[in-house]
Design a protein that fits this description.
- By secondary structure, this protein is an alpha+beta fold.
- 36% of the residues lie in helices and 36% in strands.
- The protein is elongated.
Length: 154
Amino acid sequence: MNDDTLLAEQAQAVREMFERIPFNQALGIELDEISTSRVVMHLSMKPELVGNFVHGILHGGVIASLLDVAGGATAMLGVFDRHRHLTEHERATRLARLGTIDLRIDYLRPGRGKRFSASAVPLRAGNKVAVVRSELHNEEGVLVAVGTGTYLCG
């Protein structure tokens, strides 16, 4: 299997897992980019996501969720890559165990905007744990929040 085929298989696995999570659809998160070096996704502002109704600012929980989902997708790519030698069923079993152990969010600015993009890059991918760094920007490129997530990787 060449690298392009592997990446396509990884991206498809992440996309399928992502689309099966109802919470992602409830927030309106959409995947933009999946590569071995980063994951990018976005959501559009809607009234249900407002935390500060006076100023129309994105809820902090939505910010944390979006950064966590991006981080989890990035960790999932690492699991897939480390276990490429396993059968599809064995890999799926490992991916099903993936979960957030710790998540730190630094809220840098109020979540003002119409569209918010989260990007995540791996910092460390070990046998049991992955650490991922995520950033959230609005449509004007303003950095709203950063996060560091630690994920159990089965």
